[in-house]
Amino acid sequence: MKALNMKYRGVNKATDVLSFPIYTCLKEIPKDNSFLLGDIVINLPKAKRQAADHGFTLNEELGWLLIHGLLHLLGYDHEKSRYLKNKMRLKEKELLDVIYNT
Predict the structure, then answer these.
(1) Among 50, 55, 61, 81, which one is most buried in terms of CB atoms within 10 A?
(2) Range of the domain at 40
(3) Rounded CA gap, 30 and 44, in Å?
(4) Residue 3 confidence (pLDDT)
């Protein structure tokens, strides 16, 4: 994961999740129901450590990382501004609430 992060983001450290979108903007996404958004890579050892640190189960941590990666594929970017970070966090919480509380 460290090598992927360095190669694609220029960051020389391991990360918990990486997303590789196929489309450069949402307008390019096909309107039918069968398409790919891209790839999501989750660092399982880091997810296990983070789950313990966050007080989550591994499945809860993986769910959060998957949602985080999916939102990146949909164009969310928490690194551009505080506003966009808050917007992404709210969407993550909303989706996690739907998954775990329904």
Answers:
(1) 61
(2) 2-100
(3) 31
(4) 97
